[in-house]
Structure formats: structure tokens, C-alpha cells
Amino acid sequence: MNNPKLHGIKVLIWDFDGTLYRQQPALWDAIRASEIRVIMNHTGWTEEKAKEAFYNIYKVTTPSGTKTVSQLANITNQESSTESAVYVDYAGYLFPDPKLAALFSSLSSYTHYLLVNGTQASVAKGLSLLGVRASVFAEIVTSELMGDSKPSPKGYEYIMKHTGLPASSHLMIGDREPVDLATAKTLGMHTCLVWSDTPGAIAEITVPTVYDVANVLG
User: Fold this and answer.
1) Residue ranges of domains in the chain
2) HSE on the CB side for 116, CA within 13 Å?
3) What angle do CA 186, 192, 195 make, to 5 degrees?
4) Is the pLDDT of residue 40 over 90?
5) 217 CB contacts (<8 Å, ≥6 apart)?
6) pLDDT tens, 137-184?
7) Greatest CA separation for the chain
8) How far is CA 88 from CA 27, 50, 138, 147, in A?
9) Burial of 62 (C-beta count, 10 Å sphere; 0-12/13-18/19+)
10) Mean of pLDDT over the chain
11) CA distances from 112 to 9, 105, 152 (A)
12) For residue 215, is pLDDT > 90?
């Protein structure tokens, strides 16, 4: 890792899935399956047709699975995230991570937010399984709360309104550049891509693990 130090950062904004833990193929498949199921519930399509329609849009016209489901099922982003969460259980996939808990302890001088395309309940359960206290975060900002999902600017702007600080005082940390980081960069925030050994095309900083975030903060 050969990254410059970031200075002047006061607020750390974290994605959850695939950011606070390394993405697992089995869990990712479970999340995809939940989204396909919601589409089937609202359209009456077969699983094959729902999958085909999903992948014709996902990462083609929108980088967000939540938004893809919303479009195909003709429901709101809020309904998409809420209904998909019903079919995903983090138990069996996520386990206590002392290194992650230690990371947040080492970053206690910063204000933390979570910005996620999900629900309060599912994220709270995920944090509990990882051994990270929800109270670490000033707020868990969800698509359920915003009525829209990343990469919509609503959540980012909501956080800046609450911190009252300029965009340059915020660092957005995520594992997917189009979903987590592109809007943050457009708004003037600093950006950090995690779990990547290859420098990102959008991210200002790239680190191989989430635990390395502390190393790039001045």
C-alpha cells in the first residue's frame, strides 16, 4: 500500500456490506437471491425471467441492486430494500471481528456514520454479529430512511446537513466505486476504496483491507 495521508478529515462515512467485512460469495449470492425473489413476488415472473431482467439492467443502467429491483418490481427504493432484507439472514455468514472493533476504537476521535442500501434492522443485526456496537455511529442512514438508495446524493447530503461541515471534511469508505464513492467524489468528499489491491479509477485512496483505513488518516 502506497497511499498519501489524508488531512482535515473529521467525519468517516462507511458502507456496510462488503466494506466492514470482506465480501463473501455465498452471502452475495444470498443477497442477489433475495432481490430476485422480490421481483418474482411483484411481477409473477419465473425465477429465470426475473434473473434475466435483473442482469439486463444491473450494472448496465444502474449500479445498485436496490434500484434495479425497484425499477423491475415497480416499487419504491424504500420498499425494495425493506422487502429484500426479509429474505437475507447474516447469521452463519458474519462472525465477531476483534480487528474491526479495534479499528473503530483507534478512530474514536472521528465522527462515524453508516450509509447503506438496506434497513436499520438488518444492519443492526450485522453489526452485532461482527461485534461492533451500533452506538459507534452517530447515525445509521439507510435507504429505508431516505426513501432512496446510493448512488443517490440524498444520504450524503443528509449527513453533511447534520454535521454542518464542508464536504472536504468527510471521507466516504466503500467497496464499490460506482455505488459508494462516485457521488461522494462529485459532492467534494474524500473517497477510499477498501478490499482492493488495484488502485481504483474513482477513489482517491485504495487500501487492501478495511483495517488499513487508519493508516491513511493524518
Assistant:
1) 11-22+94-216, 25-86
2) 25
3) 135
4) yes
5) 5, 6, 9, 107, 110, 171
6) 999 999 889 989 999 999 999 999 999 999 999 999 999 999 999 999
7) 53
8) 8, 18, 25, 20
9) middle
10) 95
11) 11, 11, 20
12) yes
Handedness of CA 142, 200, 2, 4 (dihedral sign): negative
The length of the chain in residues reads: 218
pLDDT digits (tens, 9 = 90+) for 95-149: 999 999 999 999 999 999 999 998 999 999 999 999 999 999 999 999 889 989 9
Residue 78: pLDDT above 90? no
- CA trace torsion 92, 98, 102, 108 (10° rounding): 40
Right CATH for 11-22+94-216 from 3.40.50.11030, 3.40.50.300, 3.20.20.10, 3.40.50.1000: 3.40.50.1000
pLDDT at residue 2, rounded to an integer: 58
DSSP code at position 208: S
- Cβ atoms 119, 135 nearer than 8 A: no
Quote the CA–CA distance of 141 and 74 in Å, as a whole number.
23
Burial letters 70-105, b for 16+ CB under 10 A, else e = bbbbebebbbbbbbbbeebebeebbeebeebeebbe
